[in-house]
Amino acid sequence: MTNHWTDIKNADLVLIMGGNAAEAHPCGFKWVTEAKAHNKARLLVVDPRFTRSASVADYYAPIRTGTDIAFLGGLISYLIENGKYQKEYVEHYTDAAFIVKEGFGFEDGLFNGYDAEKRTYPDKSSWGYELGEDGFAKVDPTLQHPRCVFNLMKQHYSRYTPDVVSNICGTPKDMMLKVWAEIAETSAPGKVMTIMYALGWTQHSVGAQMIRTGAMVQLLLGNIGMPGGGMNALRGHSNIQGLTDLGLLSNSLPGYLTLAMDAEQDYPAYIAKRASKPLRPGQLSYWQNYGKFHVSLMKAWFGKAATAENNWCYDWLPKLDVPGYDVLRYFDLMYQGKVNGYFCQGFNPIASFPNKAKVGGALAKLKWLVVMDPLATETSEFWRNAGDFNNVDTKAIQTTVFRLPVTCFAEEDGSIVNSGRWLQWHWKGAQPPGEARTDIAIMSGLYHRLRAMYAKDGGKFPDPILGLDWSYKVPDEPSPEELAMEYNGKALADLVDPKTNLLLAKAGEQLPGFALLRDDGSTASGCWIFSGSWTQLGNQMARRDNSDPYAMGQTLGWAWAWPANRRILYNRASADVSGKPWDPEKKRLVWWNGKAWGGTDVPDYKPDVPPEAGMNPFIMNPEGVARFFAVDKMAEGPFPEHYEPFETPIGINPLHKDNPKATSNPAARVFKNDMELFGTAKEFPYAATTYRLTEHFHFWTKHCRLNAITQPEQFVEIGEVLAKELGIVAGDRVKVSSNRGYIKAVAVVTKRIRPLQVNGQTVHHVGIPLHWGFSGVARNGYLTNTLTPFVGDGNTQTPEFKSFLVNVEKIAGGEA
Ligand SMILES: Nc1nc2c(c(=O)[nH]1)N[C@H]1C(S)=C(S)[C@@H](COP(=O)(O)OP(=O)(O)OC[C@H]3O[C@@H](n4cnc5c(=O)[nH]c(N)nc54)[C@H](O)[C@@H]3O)O[C@H]1N2
Ligand SMILES: Nc1nc2c(c(=O)[nH]1)N[C@H]1C(S)=C(S)[C@@H](COP(=O)(O)OP(=O)(O)OC[C@H]3O[C@@H](n4cnc5c(=O)[nH]c(N)nc54)[C@H](O)[C@@H]3O)O[C@H]1N2
Ligand SMILES: [Mo]
């Protein structure tokens, strides 16, 4: 989230699109209710299904799954054509005025530089700003230049007329225009919309671009950095925000630092590439500090072994030969028989990843599998024949499975980062049962054994394991407190301010924040963005002061938010160019008081830089402003374009009928054997989408009798019109199949899913909850991911769980 849960109460308009917060985030949804009750906010929901969120909305509009870029691209055009954008904000705080290089272009659904064979854009050199001789980007503040970002964007989305968009999305035109018109009202400087989204946007082959389009709308409306505004990703698992913060993705390092590619063996070049110099005069470009964060991380990991002479152990870090080893890639490698062993920690991939047959087949090729989980998951029993639910030949599977029972979060102390980036300390609520041990104890045990083996036998590359600094008080199980202190970081030598000669921190002291981090080896910090969470004053995450002096819900004394206890990112943009809040009465967040920036939040800015200095609010970007034009950051192009899901019910992209290369995301990675497994609308005519229910949490709660009682049996949802066509009534058993397999479930026939008119045909949706499986105390069922396609988003590789094709048949003799 750019903002946070409590702040939603400050919204004038709430758009829930690409998620179902009332059901999947029922506690956080309270703040939508607050906004409605106390701020007269309106709630709009755009979803293929009339959800529990929709049931309490002021207005609901249906949309065909996978078409949000068209819906939002049309909105961008509508806002520009009708002058409904926050002009001052767009001119000063975005890249609208920046001039794009001459070679940049877009034709037949593709940007320039495409290589169809590789399915990528290897040459993105023209996806950038034109630079002047001074090295700075050229701008035209009058927005007249034909190649300024604003005009290119206007031109790009001029194709997205209401008729075109309605024809793609299936949203009736009047409903779509009603949603657009309401959203457009928040272009007034003091009026704010928040966008709440989750998997309805992320789980598509164009998911990251859907989110970008949402952010572009928010920038046009001047809603980023504002209280009650922002782009708010509602995170899933209780600590999934912490997972990304700590760099647990295969290509990241803690604090959103990035692992190097193979070609980046040269350490200074690795740092220089990430420490971008400002692209405009007077801008901060905060990533210039990259080297300080990186060296401090290396000091936390490798201690004394990391020295200036050995480039702080840079050579010890792995380098990537491909952009990332995401789960899809790894399972593909496993499926090819290229993986011997797999540690599966708190993850149930045969249930949660697409194409169960492929995931199960991959696990069967392993020599060994270790599952660390409190529960006996399907993954740990993938070899067990469970009849039609898991039809495998147990004898043919040779994988040795080790099951290590672990504690769960409620059985240990620690911190969890919520969607709003708050690190909240929690305390153990119960003793772990039986032989369960903590993840920390198991991982430490593994480390010590590996280390002993490397010390004894040598091996190919023992240095990083032998050189790791493991000076914890209890080496067999470092405490959560000690680890949290390590993330925060400490001074390794006395830190003196070079200008004033004042002592900033004594050697050994916890640091007050990341501003003190250095690249000379005198500081250590395991995750720079967490610096400030455990200072000399103690554990800031354990704070529970909810006083709110300005009644703006920022509660700076409650827990601790990264970065720097700042609650709303980019909050300098909540004030106009002169430093005054756009709405000084109801939307005051930070402002210039004549001497400094301050207010109800920690300013996301240099506190002593006056407005007239011309430093812009988006200090992490070298431009200083926010980007409509993504330069070369996105796989499929600088402006989001609508592409169909890989399994499309209409077979073509109505925007690019004559170019099949632009039907679906041209830059999404597809493995060969998966391409062949995509189905077509001829055999599988219905658009399917999968989702969760309040009563269950993924695949764990079927181990719990109470949850099993509240939602006892696997079902699928189909609309009344389709049910009638297929002769299905509520309670019948149906078979739902895709080109990868089938499931059988009870039919729920509902008015909540209506047929949509798309490109001259009727598109029906089928809704499939994901919670059932072949383990646990609930009535067994089929794994929903038997059906889903093995393809991910072009940037994140998040699977396309939300848009695929199925057929539905009534099972003979399966009458209610
Ligand atoms: N009770 C409960 N709560 C949970 C979870 C749980 O299992 N149970 N899981 C947690 C986790 S890990 C996560 S990630 C979050 C997920 O939170 P959500 O993303 O809110 O959960 P989903 O049920 O997957 O909802 C996605 C919604 O998107 C809609 N949708 C599908 N395709 C499209 C599309 O193309 N466009 C639009 N606009 N909408 C679309 C679906 O109809 C559905 O209503 O929930 C978390 N909360
Ligand atoms: N078709 C379809 N598929 C989906 C989705 C969808 O919308 N549609 N959503 C996707 C999303 S967003 C998600 S997040 C995934 C969820 O997929 P998974 O993460 O694979 O599913 P969970 O059942 O949440 O599995 C988490 C496991 O962690 C265990 N666990 C709990 N606490 C601890 C602990 O402290 N330590 C350890 N080691 N284990 C612990 C639990 O017992 C559980 O078995 O599913 C994805 N799959
Ligand atoms: Mo999730």
Automatic annotation (TrEMBL):
Its EC number is 1.2.1.2. GO terms for biological process: anaerobic respiration. GO terms for cellular component: periplasmic space. Its main location: periplasm. Its cofactor is [4Fe-4S] cluster. It is an enzyme of class 1 (oxidoreductase). Pfam families: Molybdopterin (PF00384), Molydop_binding (PF01568). Keywords: 4Fe-4S, Iron, Iron-sulfur, Metal-binding, Oxidoreductase, Periplasm, Selenocysteine, Signal. It is found in: Periplasm. GO terms for molecular function: 4 iron, 4 sulfur cluster binding; electron transfer activity; formate dehydrogenase (cytochrome-c-553) activity; formate dehydrogenase (NAD+) activity; molybdenum ion binding; molybdopterin cofactor binding. The keyword Metal-binding applies. Residues 688-804 form the Molybdopterin dinucleotide-binding domain. Belongs to the prokaryotic molybdopterin-containing oxidoreductase family. This is Formate dehydrogenase-O major subunit. It comes from Pseudomonas knackmussii (strain DSM 6978 / CCUG 54928 / LMG 23759 / B13). The gene is fdog1.
